[in-house]
Amino acid sequence: MSAPQARIAVIGDYNPNEETHSLILRSIEDISGEMGLDIKAMWIGSDEADISGLGAFDGFWFSPGSPYKNTDNVLAAIRYARENKVPALGTCAGFQHMVIEFARNVLGLQGADSVENNAECEDDVISRLSCSLVMKKEQLKIEGTDSNLVRAMGEGEFTGEYRCNYGFNEAYKSAFRESNIIAATAQNSNGCLRGFEIKGHPFFAGTLFIPQLDHKGDGPYRIIKAFIEAVS
Question: CA dihedral defined by 190, 191, 193, 199, rounded to 10 degrees?
Fold first, then answer.
């Protein structure tokens, strides 16, 4: 008997003209085919996400494209995935909102937000980057021990590509790393945090860089493969 079809919800506000969006679906389809897996991906708008229906999915991908039409729905879905140990990957804006959810519900920073969402937020864990990363690339490295990101990317450097003006506020780095819940981080040569993964979860990782832009490559695309493996 064949394994049942796995379902991934891609949560965000789909733009057919946005490469980072179309490549999500292509990546899932291509990797599933390569691995002989039966996986169906369904795009759900941030204003359509229903917390009561999230149990129907085996994985979540939180997409680029902020501000979302309904930020609260996205944060609720991220929390659901984290607390119920459902594999989840967040890229670009998805990463940013994983940071916000973690800050609020794990670190207890209830006023945490992105300045893009709320310029007057109490804890701006996501702030405007001093230098825009739109259409930019960086050399990155994963720091951690027993984690999906480490197993996927190894100990060497790799190239991450971006489409963002907002990123992690380094003023909160110690709070994140000292929480004892972070399994691994992705950092650039200056130590700026560009991704993170939590412990005790099948797969819960967010990256400010966009692995789907490395379509079928041998760099960050491996992170998507690790996510698909966890879903299956």
Answer: 160
CATH number for the domain spanning 153: value is 3.40.50.880
- Residue 210 makes CB contacts below 8 A (sequence gap 6+) with 20, 64, 91, 92, 160, 161, 162, 163, 220
Q: The tokens of 209 are what?
A: 């860089």
Mean pLDDT of the 170-195 span = 94
d(CA 89, CA 163): 17
Task: Give tens-digit pLDDT for 109-132.
Answer: 999 999 999 999 999 999 999 999
> How many helices (DSSP H) and strands (DSSP E) are in the chain?
6, 12
Are the CB atoms for 96 and 162 separated by under 8 Å?
no
- Domain-located, residue 83: yes
Digit-coded pLDDT (tens) for 208-232: 999 999 999 999 999 999 999 999 9
74 located within any domain:
yes
Residue 162 in any domain: the answer is: yes
Q: Does any domain span residue 1? A: no
Domain limits at 188? 6-231
Report d(CA 191, CA 67) in Å as an integer. Answer: 26
Q: Sign of torsion, CA 13 51 228 37? A: negative
Give pLDDT tens digits for 129-175: 999 999 999 999 999 988 999 999 988 899 999 999 999 999 999 99
- Please tell me the total count of domains within the chain: 1
